[in-house]
Amino acid sequence: MSQLSAKQLTLNYGKKTIVEQFNLTIPAEKITILVGANGSGKSTLLRGLARLLPPKQGNIYLDGKAIQKYSNQAIAKRLGILPQNPTAPEGLTVRDLVAQGRYPHQTWWQQWSKEDEYYVEKALQITGMQEFADRDLDTLSGGQRQRAWIAIALAQNTDILLLDEPTTFLDLAHQIEVLDLLFHLNCTEGKTIVMVLHELNLACRYADHLVTIKNGKLYSQGHPSEVMTQTMVADVFRLQAEIIPDPITHTPMCIPISQGDRQLVKDHQKY
Known about the structure:
Layout: E1 4-13, E2 16-25, E3 31-36, H1 42-49, E4 57-62, E5 65-66, H2 72-76, E6 79-82, H3 94-99, H4 114-126, H5 142-155, E7 160-164, H6 172-189, E8 192-196, H7 200-206, E9 209-214, E10 217-222, H8 224-227, H9 230-237, E11 241-245, E12 252-256, H10 259-269
Parallel strand pairs: 3-8, 3-9, 6-7, 7-8
Antiparallel strand pairs: 1-2, 1-4, 4-5, 9-10, 11-12
Helix pairs in contact: 4-5, 5-6
């Protein structure tokens, strides 16, 4: 199973430093979720891990080897990547989209093979997209489209999946649908999954390993039961909150406290 890590990683956009001196080892065959306030560097870190953004300092290592030393094709065989808001050419069917995940496994002397066909069909089956295989991508619902994009990453047959906000713009039902699918992939296929999420309670429900980022630096990491604290929420998100057990999963649940909530409590206490 592939191992991904960052050592003293600094990432810049132009002259602006976004992620600084970051050290992180991704647990193999687990779900790691990156959380933090807007602009904290979560997506930038994921882009660095995916080799989409070269380090200013430090490095990313895949199985102990600097990630820059791998060819593009070799990386595509090891890392499946789902960026934010992916786009596809108009009129592309779901099957055509998923088939693109097999390109890293093809060479000039060997094009489409039975093995390629197998992994495309398997990806469609796992994501529940077989019945939509011949539909145009732009005719699908948001949740269906997101499953199709996950399927293309699955068709690559990589050990590691990197996903940047896979539930963005989805309603709650479709968020759960996508996260349940990723949880299933982790449990049944042993996939190592790293993703960025905004919703803290869903992050606590699905993460084996929770990583909190503040101003481009690692703030804390560990099991959600250790990481999700009132102090962390106040420091990282500048929000007062109560942390209680989720009544369904018993994972930490963050209940925000606003000034309006305090006033309501005072008003009720008068009566």
